[in-house]
Write a structure and sequence with these properties.
The chain is an all-beta fold and 1069 residues long. Among the domains are: 97 residues, Immunoglobulin-like (Sandwich); 91 residues, Immunoglobulin-like (Sandwich); 217 residues, Jelly Rolls, CATH 2.60.120; 214 residues, Jelly Rolls (Sandwich). The protein is 2% helix and 44% strand. The protein contains three helices and 79 strands. The strands form 14 sheets. Strands 10, 11, 12, 13, 44, 45, 46, 47 and 48 form a nine-stranded antiparallel sheet that branches. Strands 49, 51, 52, 55, 60, 61, 62 and 64 form an eight-stranded antiparallel sheet that branches. Strands 50, 53, 54, 56, 57, 58, 59 and 63 form an eight-stranded antiparallel sheet that branches. The radius of gyration is 36 Å and the shape is elongated. The N terminus is likely disordered.
């Protein structure tokens, strides 16, 4: 292997640049004539047009040779943007198929010429392609509730046209959580200039097997099956793979074929090396010291060819025709055997996929990128090489121009000023017909524009300043017409240089100018994106995984990034279309009246020439309202526990009997991060122990011990007994059990008595034992301070104080919870009544612009479009049914939008009906929403047998709910498992907590990925109150699965059961 010396230049850059670079030959030869036949399938956008050039030297067909197919009024497109290029066949014809953008086209063919035959051009064929009558659009939504009351939002929308005209009409805002109810409608305003689009759904890779996507690298675009649609060639773990384009953005996998693939691929180039009209592939093989070629079969597969052995170790390859015989040649940068010296080695093609090495063109130290092009306009290809200026090297950091002699050798060398270069691309960026350079130094983060003079020299203009990236660095450079104006631009990926705090961008640099530094360059970026990889890792994304091509039906370029991963990951489509026009809507203020989460979208219905589109949803919320301010007129919505009842519009907790423990909770979880509440109460006689206002996450049937436990905690001094864990309580105490007196308030957490924050009310004139009517107001709890006001409504005495700095979310482990009251009596008794109650809570912690989260608090009635159901999982009514009392099932259900945060909370209710079956898991995993494991004890998550690999769901974290003893775990257990391991042992038996998963009861589960690298979970029996609460151990790196899909798996074996998830919410904190 050669010693490491640099990052390879993006293959795409090489291909693009060699397609721009060959003006007509300067010396005489046999005259030729070129004709062009244009055969469109139709004259509408998306149709394939066949271009066939015929070149003759009367009366003989010309072969070999290269033909460029041009679009425009210029005589040649070789320094510009050709429609395509093709080698001449033995019959003197060259053919390409292409999807042309809408508009007027001036098509002509240019034969490049060889040392034998003169160049020639065809007549121009004018062709008009009509724009689609259904131009694709993308719709976006924005929201804000700054300076607005809770539940009110200002909504705005944008409709982008992925084409030359702006959309018209209006946008409606719809609440998808409530039957797509229309919240507001607003007209579209004025369109903007063309801009970039970050389009996650513009291309469809769903038909590509995950094993291919997981290891895809070094992508190259081309038409590998000659159907006129751009394909993508990648290397995967099994070798070469072509992803066949359809012209619609959807890709399918071509069959596998022989590929002559070396063990290590240092460089890969695509060209028609044997002039048969089919694209071939050349590889550099550093281990074998050879160049290998795989011949294209014209169907997306490849056949083996001979290898060309070299004396030295090849690295990067560059494509051209250096001896002007019309046959593709290569130049390889090689490491000289037994040294640290490097040479640029010309390899002249024989036309059969093999090459002949000639004398080295240039010797240097550690090499940087190189470019093949005709920089001095003499019709012969030149070579620009760079040196890195590495420590100890005699070669300074600069680039050198080697002038081609047209016979495979190179002449005089012209050196640039000293300038460090990590990436370099060439093109006619200022539309003057002369090739220019753009370089990126990679050290000082400077992007520099070098204007070509036309003689092989370049000037970095004094009035053009390099672009400095202060907080980020470029990880690639590519070339393309990114704004659709017919002039080449430069693009790249900006990456954070620090600790991942700066988002990544695809950035294009447009309109290079020679007259005004203000015009160099105009920088336009996509919105910040994650690229599906976390940026706090030290390794940046692989720059060779970027590819550009016209993959849609409009002939305009898209940029795709294949995400380096150990699991199947959908490629990021950075830019769906550069020639887009946006319309914005005016802002509308809407009020959400139904408490809870609302997923709201902007919907564009389309017009006569634009298709409809719908935005991704934003997650908004309306405050949860408990409004019994005039008394409790109905028990609907309340869980009354231990004997609590409604009596004449009053919530009666205790009814005058001894040793009672009672509670009442609102049955639905409500936001508790920020809330206000008011309630009136009366303690009719002074003989009870008191009451508590409680916020908890165990369940609506939670209840503690009697006596001094106040129905909330354990009896004072006891080490066991019922209590409400994961909770916060404000205690109103009327009995002296442990020295607290008989007229005090305090805050307790976790169902544990704590007298440290006790406040005696005597000095305020408040007496809880007086039998008076009292009003409690907790106003504006903001996640930190809890401010309480207690008023005697009979005497008007008031106690008001900031009770405590309190983190309720940490105490209950969630941002939403159950709210209500508890009370108790001991050896003496009294009647305790709640006379009325109001509560309003505001949801927290979701970033509406970026978060799309599972929110099904009332069941799965409207969930079918957002949850992927696999292998028999189904939505039945409002329930997510994982198993259906059928033996040997393995099912799964995942939210289709991945979670992109490390710290999350998941809540769901479930039932397991029947005593057979094996159980289920809740998990987050990075394989995709279609993942599923095996049946039986694998629970739909793991492999068939313990220790087996390859059948479980990798890159995952799962918590099981197990009802069958497969490997010693028992018939009632839970546990934490990683990466598709068989979920048997280790396990935690639930019996001691009184949780029995086989009871058929309804259970509530809460699972939290905590910041202390543990998974915290609780299970509550909602029929016969019992709680299991524990912290499950997690390795530091395993509870931080990034970009993962949350969901469930389940399995049955020889016996079966029915497992149902009744509701589900998932959020960040």
């Amino acid at each position: 292997m050669p010693a490491p010396r640099r990052l390879p230049l993006l293959v795409l850059c090489v291909l693009v640049l060699t397609a721009l670079c060959i003006p007509s030959l300067a010396y005489a030869g046999t005259a030729t004539a070129t004709t062009l036949q244009v055969t469109p399938v139709c004259l509408s956008q998306g149709c394939v047009t066949t271009l066939t050039a015929t070149v003759v030297a009367d009366p003989s067909a010309v072969h070999p040779g290269l033909v460029y197919f041009c679009d425009g009024t210029a005589a040649s497109c070789e320094n510009g943007i050709p429609v395509g290029r093709a080698q001449l066949l033995v019959n003197g014809t060259a053919t390409i198929k292409s999807v042309l953008p809408s508009g007027i086209h001036h098509l002509h063919a240019v034969f490049h010429g060889t040392s034998t035959y003169n160049a020639s051009s065809s007549a121009t064929h004018d062709l008009t392609v009509a724009a689609s009558t259904s131009i694709a659009t993308q719709t976006y939504i924005g929201s804000s509730n700054t300076a607005l009351p809770p539940g009110e939002y200002s909504l705005s929308g944008v409709a982008n046209s992925l084409g030359p005209s702006a959309p018209t009409g209006s946008i409606s805002y719809r609440d998808t959580s409530y039957g797509n109810a229309v919240l507001a409608t607003a007209p579209l305003g004025a369109g903007t200039a063309p801009q970039f689009i970050y389009n996650t759904g513009g291309l469809d890779f769903s038909q590509i097997p995950g094993t291919i996507l997981a290891s895809a690298s070094k992508p190259v675009s081309g038409d590998f099956n000659n159907d006129g649609f751009q394909d993508i060639l990648v290397l995967d773990q099994a070798g070469l793979q072509v992803l066949l384009g359809s012209g619609t953005g959807r890709f399918t996998a071509a069959p596998k074929g022989a590929n002559n693939l070396p063990a290590v691929v240092c460089s890969m180039l695509v060209a028609d090396f044997n002039s048969d009209g089919k694209l071939d592939i050349a590889f550099s093989d550093p281990n074998g010291k050879s160049i290998r070629v795989s011949f294209g079969n014209g169907d997306g597969t490849f056949a083996d060819a001979k290898s060309s052995l070299l004396a030295n170790t090849p690295g990067q390859l560059y494509l051209g025709d250096f001896n002007n015989d019309g046959i593709p040649d290569l130049i390889a940068d090689v490491q000289v055997a037994g040294s640290q010296a490097y040479e640029f080695q010309p390899l002249l093609g024989k036309g059969d996929g093999t090459f002949t090495a000639t004398s080295a063109a240039y010797s240097t130290g550690a090499t940087g990128p190189a470019i093949v092009a005709d920089f001095d306009s003499d019709g012969m290809q030149d070579l620009v090489v760079t040196t890195t200026g590495a420590a100890g090297s005699v070669y300074p950091a600069q680039f050198a121009v080697l002038h081609g002699n047209g016979d495979g050798t190179f002449g005089a060398v012209k050196l640039s000023p000293s300038f460090s270069t990590l990436y370099m691309v060439a093109g006619d960026f200022n539309a003057d017909g002369i090739l220019d350079l753009v370089t990126y130094d990679g050290s000082f983060s400077l992007l520099a524009y070098w204007q070509g003079i036309g003689d092989g020299t370049f000037v970095q203009l004094s009035n053009v300043s390099p672009v400095d990236f202060f907080s980020s660095s470029l990880n690639s450079l590519i070339v393309g017409d990114f704004d659709g104006d017919g002039v080449l631009d430069v693009g790249g990926v900006q990456m954070d240089r620090g600790e991942g705090t700066t988002p990544s961008y695809f950035t294009a640099f447009l309109h290079f100018s020679t007259t005004s530094s203000a015009d160099f360059p105009q920088q336009v970026s996509t919105p910040p994106i994650s690229m599906n990889v976390p940026f706090d890792v030290p390794t940046p994304p692989n720059l060779t995984n970027l590819v550009v091509g016209a993959f849609g039906n409009n002939g305009l370029p898209s940029v795709v990034y294949f995400v380096p991963s150990t699991v199947a990951t959908t490629p990021v489509n950075f830019i769906a279309d550069f020639n887009s026009v946006a319309h914005t809507t005016q802002s509308n203020t809407v009020t959400l009246t139904t408490p809870g989460v609302h997923n709201v979208v902007a919907s564009y219905p389309g017009d006569n020439s634009h298709a409809a589109s719908v935005s991704a949803p934003v997650t908004l919320s309306a405050p949860a309202q408990i409004n019994d301010g005039s008394g409790f007129t109905s028990s609907a919505g309340l869980a009354l526990n231990g004997g609590a009842t409604l009596q004449g519009g009053i919530l009666q907790l205790t009814d005058g009997k001894t040793f009672e423990a009672r509670s009442a909770f609102y049955q639905k979880r409500v936001p508790v991060y920020s809330f206000s509440t008011t309630f009136d109460f009366q303690i009719a006689s002074p003989n009870s122990d008191g009451l508590a206002f409680v916020i908890q996450s165990n369940g609506p049937n939670a209840i503690g011990s009697n006596g001094g436990g106040l129905g909330y905690g354990q009896t004072p001094g006891a080490t066991s007994g019922p209590s409400i864990r994961n909770s916060v309580a404000i205690i109103f105490d009327t009995h002296n059990n442990q020295g607290e007196g008989n007229n005090s308030i305090r805050v307790e957490t976790g169902g544990v008595t704590n007298l440290g924050d006790l406040i005696d009310l005597t000095s305020s004139g408040i007496d809880l034992r007086s039998g008076h009517h009292f009003r409690v107001v907790i106003a504006g709890y903001n996640g930190v301070e809890l401010n309480l006001s207690l008023t005697d409504l009979d005497t008007r005495k008031v106690f008001s104080q900031n009770l405590i700095t309190l983190d309720i979310v940490s105490a209950i482990g969630d941002t939403i919870g159950y709210v209500g009251f508890t009370s108790a009596t001991g050896a003496t008794a009294s009647i305790i009544n709640i006379l009325n109650w109001n509560y309003a809570g505001q949801i927290c912690c979701v970033t509406p612009a970026t978060a799309v989260l599972p929110s099904f608090p009332d069941g799965f009635t409207n969930a079918a479009s957002t949850i992927q159901l696999n292998k028999g999982a189904a939505i039945v009514g409002s329930e997510l049914q994982l198993t259906n009392d059928t033996p040997f099932e393995a099912t799964s259900a995942f939210f289709k939008t991945p979670n992109d945060q490390f710290f999350w909370i998941s809540d769901f209710d479930f039932t397991i009906q029947g005593t057979g079956g094996d159980g289920f898991t809740f998990l987050v995993q990075g394989n995709g929403p279609g993942a599923v494991g095996t049946s039986g004890g694998a629970l739909g998550y793991g492999p068939y047998f313990p220790g087996e690999s390859g059948y479980g769901i990798g890159d995952s974290l799962a918590i099981k709910f197990d009802v069958h003893n497969n490997g010693g775990e028992g018939i009632n257990s839970t546990g934490l498992y990683f990466d598709g391991a068989y979920p048997s042992v280790p396990a935690i038996d639930l019996t001691s907590s009184r949780i029995n998963l086989r009871s058929g009861h309804r259970f509530h589960a809460r699972i939290l990925s905590a910041k202390d690298a543990t998974i915290k979970m609780s299970i509550t029996d909602l029929d016969d109150y019992a709680v299991f609460d524990n912290s499950l151990y997690s390795r530091n790196d395993d509870n931080s699965i990034f970009h993962a899909y949350p969901g469930f798996t389940a399995g049955t074996g020889a016996t079966a059961n029915t497992i149902k998830i009744l509701n589900w919410t998932f959020g960040y904190y």
